[in-house]
Amino acid sequence: MDNLSMLTDLYEFSMANGYRQTIDDEQGVFDIFFRKVPDSGSFVICAGLQQIVESLKDFHFSKQDVDYLRSLKLFKENFLDYLSDFHFDCQVSAIPEGTPVFSREPLLTIQGPLLQTQLFETLLLNIMNHQSLIATKARRITFAAGDKPIMEFGARRAQGPSSATFGARAAVIGGCASTSNVLAAEKFGIPAAGTMAHAWIEAFPDELTAFEKWADVYPDNASLLVDTYDVLKSGVPNAITVFTELKKNGHKPVGIRIDSGDITQLAKGARKMLDDAGFPDTKITASNALDEHVIQSLLNEGAPLDNFGVGEKLITSSTSPVLSGVYKLAAIVQNGKMIPKIKVSASREKLTLPGLKQVYRLYRPNTNQAFADIIALNDEVLDRPMDVVKANPIATERQQSIENYDAKPLQEKVMDGEKVQAELPDVFTIQKRSKQMLKEIPSATQRLVNPDEYPVYMTLKLAQLQENLVAEEKK
């Protein structure tokens, strides 16, 4: 990745400069978390950690950067000198990519010099919000498709080259099988997928000639776009003519793609024609403005589709285009002492969770079935039985007791300074792990419409700390 140190809102530089002049020796603890799940879902698939690590390892300021900041006439020279000789000196812990995570859980925690931790806010949120959003949308789409592969087709509709490339990565974490984006395919080891556009057919005197020429060039990759003129009257018959010739010459046709019209009826008609012609194994791909609801509808209607190409509604998460993750101060460290901090708002829903924390996933004993998560202070030992409080500050019947459970910590150490302490696996390893973790949470939580709420609790000690800080602020 390019050095992204200047991808920072101005107020972060202003605050960091202020810390340099006032409380330069203090450390800060910041959490990234979200309150609202896109598309009225119940969880988010977290993604983007690898790019965060790469960005933090390479975080530095060039002479040109420092000269520009100097030209703003806002900052002291001792701050600019600090930036000129910047060395990353923080500790990072995070929940691994691909994990289904829930509201208010700290996905990433960073601790280090307050000046440094303040500078990372925009960069870290930009990466994690975007990739987690697209991974979450991809999970919804692949969930709707079941065992039928999803090809990510969205580069041309993404909001810029970076969103296209890292969005494709996130889409694979969320379950996609391939991408049409060759840069993403090369960069992240993703299978590249794609056939032809309507322009190929239009460039030849007629559709049959276009198909024949394609088959001449790609005899073992003959997947034909059949909706340029008329799917059932010309597209499929012409495809069958070409497939028949390929078969005679020892090649196996791949299939057809339908990109417009009543896809259910066209796919049913095409499937019958292909089967009757002796091509029951050729695939039918659907594309054209698909999302999880359209795919689910097509399959419920019995459309005989084998895979899907999904573009703009995946790469932009157009039905819910924002994951509003936030970066909040949870504690400062003065003279080695951790001092918890809290944001108190007029809206209780916006209360933050103070202190250095860990997230645990709770399982039924001796099973892989999770039933709740709990947020605890980092130095707590979980009791059995354990009194807990719902993490949602506006929930009713918040307090209860949990007795029988196995607990698995979710956050793990990622960086200590520039030293990377966690594995950063390839996207398909992350995808495999994500699918396994999805099997562990209740199926009712995974529904696309009206999913059940998955309980997220905090320990009584953390809840009491939060309430004590709220009471202090109101004095």
Automatic annotation (TrEMBL):
Its EC number is 6.3.4.21. Keywords: Glycosyltransferase, Ligase, Phosphoprotein, Pyridine nucleotide biosynthesis, Transferase. Pathway: Cofactor biosynthesis; NAD(+) biosynthesis; nicotinate D-ribonucleotide from nicotinate: step 1/1. GO terms for biological process: NAD+ biosynthetic process via the salvage pathway. One of its GO terms (molecular function) is nicotinamide phosphoribosyltransferase activity. It catalyses: 5-phospho-alpha-D-ribose 1-diphosphate + nicotinate + ATP + H2O = nicotinate beta-D-ribonucleotide + ADP + phosphate + diphosphate. InterPro entries: Aldolase_TIM, N/Namide_PRibTrfase, NAPRTase_C, NAPRTase_N, Nic_PRibTrfase-Fam, Nic_PRibTrfase_pncB, Nicotinate_pribotase-like_C. It is an enzyme of class 6 (ligase). Residues 6-129 form the Nicotinate phosphoribosyltransferase N-terminal domain. Transiently phosphorylated on a His residue during the reaction cycle. Phosphorylation strongly increases the affinity for substrates and increases the rate of nicotinate D-ribonucleotide production. Dephosphorylation regenerates the low-affinity form of the enzyme, leading to product release. Residues 357-466 form the Nicotinate phosphoribosyltransferase C-terminal domain. It holds the Pfam family NAPRTase_C. The keyword Phosphoprotein applies. Residues 150-340 form the Nicotinate/nicotinamide phosphoribosyltransferase domain. GO terms for cellular component: cytosol. It comes from the Bacteria. Belongs to the NAPRTase family. Catalyzes the first step in the biosynthesis of NAD from nicotinic acid, the ATP-dependent synthesis of beta-nicotinate D-ribonucleotide from nicotinate and 5-phospho-D-ribose 1-phosphate. PANTHER family: NICOTINATE PHOSPHORIBOSYLTRANSFERASE (PTHR11098). This is Nicotinate phosphoribosyltransferase. It comes from Lentilactobacillus hilgardii (strain ATCC 8290 / DSM 20176 / CCUG 30140 / JCM 1155 / KCTC 3500 / NBRC 15886 / NCIMB 8040 / NRRL B-1843 / 9). The gene is pncB.
